[in-house]
Amino acid sequence: LALRFSPSADISVPGFETVLPNDPRLNRPAGSLVRTPNDPLLSSGLNGLDTITVPWTKSATATVSLWTEDQGEWEYFPHSLNRTITINGQVVLQQSLTPQEWVDQVFLRGVWKEAMIDGDPWTIYAQDRAGLLTATVPVVDGKIVVQVQSDGPPNNGYLAAMVIAPGDSDAAVDAVEAWRRARYLERWPVVDKPVNPALATGVTLRVIPPGAGRSMRPFWDPALPVTTNVRAPRGGIVSVDFLAFANQDDLMPQVQVNAPAGVSPQLRWGKWTYMRRDAGERALSITADVLEGDMSQMRIATGVPRRINVTFTVPDTASAAFPVTLAMDIAGSHVEATVNVDVIPLALPATDRPIGYYVAAPNYETWFPPAPAEVDRQMACDFAALRRAAGFRAPYFDYTSVKHMMDKVDAATTGRYVAGAQQALAGAGVPNPLWSIADEPMPGTAAELKRVRDALKLSAPDANISGHLNDAKVRDLVPLFDTLLVNNGFGVGAALFGQMRAQNVVPWLYNMPDHRAASGFLQWRVGASGYIQWHARAITADPRDPTDGRETDFAVLPLTPNRCQSVPTVDATLLDMTDGIADLRWLLWLEARAAGDAKAKSLRDALFAAVPADWAAYAKAPPALPALRGRIEDYARSVSGG
Hints:
Layout: E1 2-5, E2 17-19, E3 31-34, E4 44-47, E5 51-55, E6 61-67, E7 82-87, E8 90-96, H1 99-107, H2 121-124, E9 132-138, E10 143-150, E11 161-166, H3 171-187, E12 203-207, E13 227-234, E14 237-246, E15 254-258, E16 266-275, E17 285-292, E18 306-313, E19 322-330, E20 333-347, E21 355-358, H4 364-367, H5 372-389, E22 397-398, H6 401-408, H7 411-427, E23 434-439, H8 446-459, E24 464-469, E25 483-486, H9 494-502, E26 506-510, H10 515-519, H11 521-526, E27 531-534, E28 570-571, H12 573-594, H13 598-610, H14 615-620, H15 625-640
Parallel strand pairs: 1-2, 13-20, 21-27, 22-23, 23-24, 24-25, 25-26, 26-27
Antiparallel strand pairs: 1-11, 3-4, 5-10, 6-9, 6-11, 7-8, 7-10, 12-14, 14-18, 15-19, 16-17, 16-18, 17-28, 19-20
């Protein structure tokens, strides 16, 4: 007997009988939950269950299987601490966890499993999304009685499915799981293929020359060099990828970096993960884009390339070229590869505008709030990780404060709170933030937004009113703002931004498809005054599962057991933004030189002409940004005397 607990008869699974919320086998009416349709057996279920009584006369004993895990959605992931499930009086699950135990055992489960090395998506995460419990029990009075007790609404007393088979046999549950596996892998095919392990003929370490894309899929190229050259100014950030490839396993390879005094490299390894980069994708990629800072967890697997990233800052006093060498001992073999840094003896100006990420605390801190001091400590680690590579500076965009205040008080009171907050910030020497009043609003919202804006301005005339727009149909809202974040959905271009500035509205970029361009050349070309990318951390439901949300997971700060480890774990997209910020700093340096140097002005004008003036044109014919920066570096080398 196969039962599918479902809110509607329209949600059915072949071979399963549907159990609706008012089914007489339930001791009380149930609630319902509907989730993403990735897995037809788990896409919905009933909650608030207490006792399910199913007549059974086919055998004296029965094997009962229960699928007990709510998949979650958006920022919600089931987080019951206490659960008990009994079948005919036999306890099949007894769970009592502290919040930290739940984080360690549930939220972080499988954190070190890797694509390819440890299996396919089903093996890595999908098979244990079900909360499957199986037990063989005696049949009592011709019935199977399941009792479910748990805390943590809305997934309290939750079941998605039940299968009862006569005797002591796993054949039925195994058949269901095989069907689930086939359906899942059919729905989410993996587009990347592993490297042919036969290509590994020894132990090898190579360096990837600068200018390659930051995102890495499985590949091996025996023509990769063991040395490469990179140019950088004083104080510049250098981030270079190496690739190890071996025909032997090593669970504890030895890694070290040899660098001159004053150079302090950070080491990270690329963890192979199944990833859905774009919201609309219906396939999985294999990437090594999670750059893990805990080197003790790195292993070498036969025939699987291993990405190692070395990032360091060029000393402010550097004047000559210097080498940085990565050395590894793998399965008894010693290998090395080197990057030679050609120092351009000048310092670049700091960024003159905010560029960075919107970052929020992990979801579990909402469910299990830590002490305020611990919240501050952990968030400080997040900020430090981003600050090392990104260039955020005032003014700061306040995304949620007005929204949260408006949930509790009226617009006039919110305005008074904003005025009070600005007074307190001024007393602490902190500049006023940008107060967001619009989160991608729909057409026809001008009157309501104007009401909120006017209320804030009445109490705080100097409040910088902001928001973000993603649709060209809402361009009528532009005059309501002082600073406005827009993306390619709204329109990004020099002419449009000129029109906005004519209305005394300062344009920023947000959520752009090309992070490097938006941080540097494109931002400079279109005349934006800032750039924010959502999200540094936005995990949908299970952090291991990239397929359980309406959108893909966004995690510039990926899942890690220790947010405060000495070398932060980051996503490779952060390096794209780092490269873009460096591009912008070179452009600012060139702009300053152009004021009194005809060659600099000529180069500046040539670069301006080489970068399309709006996103639509840029997307059709994106320029080679490393080559554009290289032209500035060539000029800088010629005038620096180095």
